[in-house]
Amino acid sequence: MAGPFPHIRVLDLSRILAAPLAAQILGDLGAEVIKIEKPGHGDDTRTFGPPWMKDAQGVDTSESAYFLAGNRNKKSITLDIATPRGQEILRELVRVSDVLIENYKVGNLDRYGLGYEDLKKINPRLIYCSLTGFGQDGPYAERPGYDFVFQGMGGLMSITGEMDGLPGGGPQKVGIPIIDYMTGLNAAIALCAALAHRERTGEGQHIDCALLDMAVAVNVTQVLSQFCGGQIPRRLGNAHPHIVPYEVFPTADGHMILAVANDAQFQRFCAVADRPSLAADPRFATNSQRVINRGILTPIVTELLAKQSRRWWQEHLEQAGVACGPINNLHEVFEDPQVLHRGLRVDMPHPLGTAPTLASPLRLSATPVSYRRAPPLLGEHTREVLEELLHMPASAVDALSAERVI
Question: What top-level branch of life does the organism fall under (predicted)?
Fold first, then answer.
């Protein structure tokens, strides 16, 4: 059995990243995922290049790296749902499916009779997951929005980046579309919960996932600090607001991360640094005091770490059970022995060559994830799905193609 969901069929009507990631997670867990794309155009991210996937000769193909990121384990069909016949076909697919994932603007699918209230009448077991910028209700519900916008609106950029007043200070986004990614994860969790509920009751439901909700939720510890402490959190660069020392420090030959998470680890760090008196100093003996006296302790730690190389510190601190690590670029990440051992790059056979993808971080002993299909070409499986799943004769599929419904 490939994952826990080989009996689940998902209709993926989404584009860009957050919602496609949610569908890909279900696909990795064994579900059959049918990605429904606009004829001739498809998912917007198909055009988000360069870079492009290379063919066997190392030449660029038409498949963007961005599209590969969120569309593994899917079949692609093209279907114009703005046409009455396209809407009929989608309803036929809904009858034989378990999940529908979409990220259209609020109300857009209702105009075609494809909203949740419409589709649950023909399939009461349907789990209908909507991902939007601001959610299905509220004063901003109809606004468009992208990850970058929500990193700002949700507060993340107010606590990310170098301290104000220092070189490089000011608002800074995270280096990846973190709100998209986490909203996709959140949607996948909600979908698993809805499938568990349906297993017990036979009842489908509507899931409402908003990027703004996730953008606020991701700040959880900082938000609670404001709620409890009454002060608005500020940017601290690489420093931690609640733990000291816990940041990037220069060594004799480059930078490294030192992450001292508790008092016992601080004592062990001081022993490695040959400064046991620091651990006994009442200003630094507890984490609370270290946070209060951050401005005194940080320069001392900086001076200590500058005396030895990164390798020296990493070897000795790891032996002492103190967390530390390098700052790898993404090429170095995939040369790391642990990353190689865990198999975090997965290359998949593709009609145009080999598609590189990232492994799923989910590791289940009894129902492991599987990598069955490379991210599909636009419309690669249209005929297969219509003929085999909906039992359409080949002549009918040819007619749909001539009418540009598919």
Answer: Bacteria
- Which H or E element spans position 349? strand 345-350
**Bridging pattern class, strands 60-64 and 52-54:** antiparallel
Q: For residues 15 and 110, give the distance between their C-alpha atoms in angstroms, rounded to a whole number.
A: 18
CA–CA dist 357, 347 (Å, integer) = 6
* Domain closes at, from 294, 328, 362: 328
What SS3 state is found at 89?
helix
Q: Strands, E, within 252-301: which ranges? A: 254-259
Can you give the pLDDT of all 406 residues of the chain as single tens digits? 679 999 999 999 999 999 999 999 999 999 999 999 999 999 999 999 999 999 999 999 999 999 999 999 999 999 999 999 999 999 999 999 999 999 999 999 999 999 999 999 999 999 999 999 999 999 999 999 999 999 999 999 999 999 998 898 999 999 999 999 999 999 999 999 999 999 999 999 999 999 999 999 999 999 999 999 999 999 999 999 999 999 999 999 999 999 999 999 999 999 999 999 999 999 999 999 999 999 999 999 999 999 999 999 999 999 999 999 999 999 999 999 999 999 999 999 999 999 999 999 999 999 999 999 999 999 999 999 999 999 999 999 999 999 999 9
1 residue type, one letter: M
Structural domain span for residue 345: 9-217+340-402
348 and 323 fall within a common domain:
no
180 catalytically annotated: yes
190 & 41 share domain: yes
Same domain, yes or no: 256 and 361: no
Given a contact cutoff of 8 angstroms between Cβ atoms, the answer to whether 293 and 287 are in contact is: no
Instruction: Let me know: does 106 contact 136? Beta carbons within 8 Å.
Output: yes
Burial class (CB in 10 A: 0-12, 13-18, 19+), 280: exposed
Which residues does 338 contact at the CB level (< 8 Å), separation at least 6? none
Question: Considering the domain boundaries, does residue 231 fall inside one?
Answer: no
- Quick one: 311 and 193 in the same domain? no
Instruction: Exactly one of 180, 263, 274, 281 is catalytic; name it.
Output: 180
Number of domains observed in the structure of the chain: 2
